[in-house]
Specification:
3 helices; about 130 residues; Co/Zn/Cd cation transporter; transmembrane; membrane; mainly alpha; 2 strands; transmembrane helix
Length: about 130
């Protein structure tokens, strides 16, 4: 069975350089079912700044506490005397003592970040009691 219809020439389709996809007017985060406006942009920038301040504060506090912990281990030569499983106690404290510190600071950060986001949601949509 042969097809007697003429073939159409191939056409190359390209996008023009002037056709751009429009970007949203705001860069902020909008709540579901809520049209973004200028206030949302202000609130979202405030949220980002608050989260950045929180992150920098947590890292700085962790470094101070971790440094104090390391100095305390180095300053107490009595920790080098006891040996557990052939390893000095000061080495074990340095090897495993930082993990509880990391966990505590991680929990503090997560709780504070969630509190910041709840405050943002309350400011952005005061009608809901979320």
């Amino acid at each position: 069975m042969t097809d007697e219809t003429p073939r159409l020439p191939r056409v190359r389709v390209t996008a023009s350089g002037s056709a751009r996809v429009p970007r949203p007017a705001t860069r902020g985060f909008a709540l579901p079912g809520h049209a973004p406006d200028e206030a949302d942009d202000v609130f979202s920038r405030g949220l980002v700044r608050a989260q950045l301040r929180l992150a920098i504060g947590c890292v700085a506090a962790f470094l101070v506490v971790a440094g104090a912990f390391a100095v305390a281990i180095a300053a107490l030569p009595a920790l080098g005397d006891p040996v557990l499983f052939g390893v000095p106690l000061s080495w074990l404290a340095q090897a495993y003592g930082f993990y509880p510190l990391i966990l505590v600071f991680a929990l503090i950060f997560v709780r504070a970040a969630a509190r910041n986001e709840r405050r943002y949601r309350h400011l952005a949509d005061p009608g809901s009691d979320a």
